[in-house]
Amino acid sequence: MAATLTSPATRRVPRQERSRRRVEDLLDAAARLVVERGVEALTTRDIAEAAGVPVAGLYQYFADKEDLLLALAQRDMDEMDTQVAADLATLETLSMWTLVRTTMSAYVEVYRRRPAFVEIYLRGRTNVAVHRFGREHNARTATMLRDFAVEAGIAQPDLRPDVALLAVEVGDRVFQLAYEHDRSGNRKIVEEGMVLVAAYLERYATPEGLQGIRR
């Protein structure tokens, strides 16, 4: 169920361990500074200094600050996809409700571990590239979850892709609202969002998807 974004053509993919470690150091430094200062105040010079890397070294791997932030967002989104897949794999009872609850709870867990992601992804939508990044990932997530639900027998085969996408987009908006004023998130908003998304998708559930399938 994991999904990844294609790396921008401007970014050099490191092959040696030393180079990979340098890229991780730059991403970790950017994450720390985003939490401390916010996205808008961040500069490539600040990131390079915090990582102990010359500014010229940063530009070996990233075209600009935006490119680096998208790489950081992608790293965290990959972790989120992995978390969703792992949590769904351990479910004892699968239903439309547990699918929604487990997926959204996995997101909450990664937001807790990755506060910089909250700043970049949930609060940085005014950035065109970040906005596009989110919409593309939402589309892939909708396709993966729809296919998973249909193959598991909890969703009707005629569940339309646009219905699945709408559910994911609504869930995405729930998270934006929940984390708008609190980096740790408003759990009540998230829980209400789970009920909202699940109720919508249950209209397309099979009888097993409503009652639950023991695994």
From TrEMBL:
Which Pfam families did the record assign? TetR_C_15, TetR_N
Identify the domain of life. Bacteria
Q: Tell me yes or no: is DNA-binding among this UniProt entry's keywords.
A: yes
The record's listing under InterPro entries reads: Homeodomain-like_sf (IPR009057), HTH-type_TetR-like_transc_reg (IPR050109), HTH_TetR (IPR001647), TetR_C_15 (IPR041669)
All copies of the HTH tetR-type domain together span: 20-80
Which key words tag this protein in UniProt?
DNA-binding, Transcription, Transcription regulation
Q: Which residues bind DNA?
A: 43-62
Instruction: Say if the entry is tagged with keyword Kinase.
Output: no
Q: What is this protein called?
A: TetR/AcrR family transcriptional regulator
Q: Which organism is it from?
A: Nocardioides caricicola
